[in-house]
């Protein structure tokens, strides 16, 4: 078996080691004998989402988001169609914001998104504190740990499912306890770290979704010895328990 992973704007959208997500996917595939080709997609490069098995996009500062937004907008209709057809996506931080409807920056400027997620991000202003620190989230894929650093606050529309609920940290907006968003096999999240090396269940869920989309629902993943990954995950959780924000209990 083989997989084709499209890594969008890897030279521009790569805050806090987000490139490690692509490395983790390729490594976990290699350990199972699955050939995995990671294809960088930069501004202006030809790209058909229907030909990809998995799409990754990392985080970037406002100027990087403005730089890639026009190119991403042109790809938006095809990406939305592919997600509706089951394409797995991992969109992190600035990538998550651009996969929503829009990001309104601290000056009121609008960076348009492609609307994969029914969400909007707003920056509360230049003097507002950033949402920064270790984070632990309860998700459909189990407990996920990472690191967040974002000024924008993301608000999900009614009916848009979050990626998970914040146990420790800030999450989408430090108000409602949500973190990220999920639609079909597409996941948006603020978690850096990089995320996938220390959250192998999520990495495998993305790989399995990609395999089943390409090869059919009977595709399976052999189990791996994840002792090292589990130690990394436990260390990230312990760090969050020592120093992360503890959100107010949500009703």
From TrEMBL:
<feature type="active site">
    <location>
        <position position="192"/>
    </location>
</feature>
<dbReference type="InterPro" id="IPR043702">
    <property type="entry name" value="Lipid_II_synth_GatD"/>
</dbReference>
<comment type="subunit">
    <text>Forms a heterodimer with MurT.</text>
</comment>
<comment type="pathway">
    <text>Cell wall biogenesis; peptidoglycan biosynthesis.</text>
</comment>
<dbReference type="InterPro" id="IPR029062">
    <property type="entry name" value="Class_I_gatase-like"/>
</dbReference>
<dbReference type="InterPro" id="IPR011698">
    <property type="entry name" value="GATase_3"/>
</dbReference>
<dbReference type="Pfam" id="PF07685">
    <property type="entry name" value="GATase_3"/>
</dbReference>
<feature type="domain" description="CobB/CobQ-like glutamine amidotransferase">
    <location>
        <begin position="4"/>
        <end position="199"/>
    </location>
</feature>
<feature type="binding site">
    <location>
        <position position="130"/>
    </location>
    <ligand>
        <name>substrate</name>
    </ligand>
</feature>
<feature type="region of interest" description="Disordered">
    <location>
        <begin position="232"/>
        <end position="251"/>
    </location>
</feature>
<keyword id="KW-0573">Peptidoglycan synthesis</keyword>
<keyword id="KW-0961">Cell wall biogenesis/degradation</keyword>
<keyword id="KW-0436">Ligase</keyword>
<dbReference type="InterPro" id="IPR033949">
    <property type="entry name" value="CobQ_GATase1"/>
</dbReference>
<feature type="active site" description="Nucleophile">
    <location>
        <position position="93"/>
    </location>
</feature>
<protein>
    <recommendedName>
        <fullName>Lipid II isoglutaminyl synthase (glutamine-hydrolyzing) subunit GatD</fullName>
        <ecNumber>6.3.5.13</ecNumber>
        <ecNumber>3.5.1.2</ecNumber>
    </recommendedName>
</protein>
<keyword id="KW-0315">Glutamine amidotransferase</keyword>
<comment type="similarity">
    <text>Belongs to the CobB/CobQ family. GatD subfamily.</text>
</comment>
<comment type="function">
    <text>The lipid II isoglutaminyl synthase complex catalyzes the formation of alpha-D-isoglutamine in the cell wall lipid II stem peptide. The GatD subunit catalyzes the hydrolysis of glutamine to glutamate and ammonia. The resulting ammonia molecule is channeled to the active site of MurT.</text>
</comment>
<keyword id="KW-0378">Hydrolase</keyword>
<keyword id="KW-0133">Cell shape</keyword>
């Amino acid at each position: 078996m083989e997989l084709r992973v499209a890594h969008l704007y890897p030279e521009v959208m790569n805050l806090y080691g987000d490139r490690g997500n692509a490395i983790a996917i390729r490594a976990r595939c290699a350990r199972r004998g699955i050939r995995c080709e990671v294809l960088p997609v930069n501004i202006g490069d030809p790209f058909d989402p229907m030909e990809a098995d998995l799409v990754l996009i990392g985080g970037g500062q406002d100027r990087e988001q403005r730089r890639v937004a026009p190119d991403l907008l042109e790809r938006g209709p095809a990406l939305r169609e592919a997600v509706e057809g089951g394409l797995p996506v991992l969109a992190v931080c600035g990538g998550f914001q651009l996969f929503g409807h829009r990001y309104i920056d601290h000056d009121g400027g609008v960076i348009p998104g492609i609307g994969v997620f029914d969400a909007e991000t707003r920056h509360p202003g230049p003097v507002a504190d950033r949402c920064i620190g270790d984070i632990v989230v309860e998700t459909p894929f189990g407990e996920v740990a990472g690191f967040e650093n974002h000024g924008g606050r993301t608000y999900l529309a009614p009916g848009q499912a979050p990626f998970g609920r914040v146990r420790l940290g800030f999450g989408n907006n430090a108000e409602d306890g949500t973190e990220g968003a999920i639609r079909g096999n597409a996941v948006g999240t603020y978690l850096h770290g990089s995320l996938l090396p220390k959250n192998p269940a999520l990495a495998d869920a993305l790989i399995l979704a990609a395999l089943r989309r390409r090869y059919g629902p009977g595709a399976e993943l052999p189990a791996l010895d994840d002792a090292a990954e589990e130690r990394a995950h436990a260390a990230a959780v312990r760090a969050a328990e020592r120093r992360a924000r503890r959100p107010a209990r949500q009703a």
